Amino acid sequence: MSAALPSLSTPRLVLKALQKHQAETLSELANGPEIADNTAAIPSPYTLETALTFIDGQEENFRSGQSLALGVHLRESDELIGVISLRLSAAHRSGHLGGWTAAHRRNQGYAAEAAGAIMAFGFTELMLHRVGSQCFARNKGSARVMEKIGLGYEGCMKGAFLKNGIHEDMLLYGLLRADWQAVS
């Protein structure tokens, strides 16, 4: 896989590699309301060191085929508003979609726009067979994003994830490239 991270454009967004000078902003946004609470893998607090480690690892993770993670930026101002990613499995030719949007930019369609773009890249450029995702059952916003971009509901794993001392139900979503191509 190429070492260079792609830059993806949508009508309102640019998805591109995060830069070290954005570490403080990334840390502030990731510490925002509901980010760590609604995600399985984001630590809380999200320190400046955590942000720098994440930024420093982007290219190597992509080059090694582990993941593609990009900062989500508003096209008109270059403001960083979140992160979108695909955790990759070369053995299964699949990607697991993840991401988050800053609290002050939610409910404006940015998450679905970014998720749709990285999913399309996964199917067309990475030749993935499947893209899937999951969210806590209580996270209605994430479930809505997955449905908006065409991922189909595949079921609920009851009590599958221990978060903050509570066993959470996880909703599963997925889409095959052939099904995506049929509606694209």
TrEMBL record:
Coiled coil: none annotated. Residues 12-151 form the N-acetyltransferase domain. SUPFAM superfamilies: Acyl-CoA N-acyltransferases (Nat) (SSF55729). The keyword Transferase applies. The keyword Transferase applies. GO terms for molecular function: acyltransferase activity, transferring groups other than amino-acyl groups. It holds the Pfam family Acetyltransf_3. InterPro entries: Acyl_CoA_acyltransferase (IPR016181), GNAT_dom (IPR000182), N-acetyltransferase (IPR051531). Gene3D superfamilies: 3.40.630.30. Keywords: Acyltransferase, Transferase. Its EC number is 2.3.1.-. Belongs to the acetyltransferase family. RimJ subfamily. This is GNAT family acetyltransferase. It comes from Pseudomonas chlororaphis.
